[in-house]
Design brief:
Elements lengths: L6 H9 L3 H17 L4 E5 L2 E5 L4 E7 L4 E4 L3 H6 L1 H4 L3 E3 L2 E4 L7 H19 L2
Antiparallel strand pairs: 1-2, 2-3, 3-4, 4-6, 5-6
Helix pairs in contact: 2-5
């Protein structure tokens, strides 16, 4: 993972969450970092996020009753519609609970598709 000045701020945001949400989001963060080692961590719209290369990639956060994985691309989410059919989704977002975390394979596939989408956009 490339370095980021926002990492301490992200750690502070996660530290304010209930333990179950914090654990779920820290696991999601590790999976994203593993899938996108060249991405940098940042705060975007007040939420922990990853940028690749310098462009928004994905982000995540917590609400009172759920956690969220912000895919930031309705097209990428639609490309995975079969895998997310049983999940709580909306345009570019997957909501989940700490007791039913997102499969690492799904997160990895989405992150890699977002990187490919970002790379393709950069070439235009």
């Amino acid at each position: 993972m490339a370095g980021s000045d926002d990492v301490p701020q992200i750690d502070a945001v996660l530290a304010t969450l209930p333990q179950d949400q914090r654990g779920a989001l820290e696991s999601l963060r590790r999976t994203i970092r593993s899938a996108a080692p060249a991405a940098t961590e940042a705060i975007s719209y007040g939420a922990p996020a990853f940028r690749y290369p310098g462009r928004p990639l994905v982000s995540y956060g917590a609400a009172k009753t759920h956690c969220a994985f912000y895919v930031m691309s309705p097209a990428v989410l639609d490309a995975h519609r079969d895998e997310v059919a049983s999940l709580d989704t909306s345009k570019g977002t997957i909501r989940f609970t700490p007791d039913a975390p997102l499969p690492e394979s799904l997160v990895t596939a989405i992150v890699r598709d977002r990187m490919a989408e970002t790379d393709a956009a950069a070439k235009h």
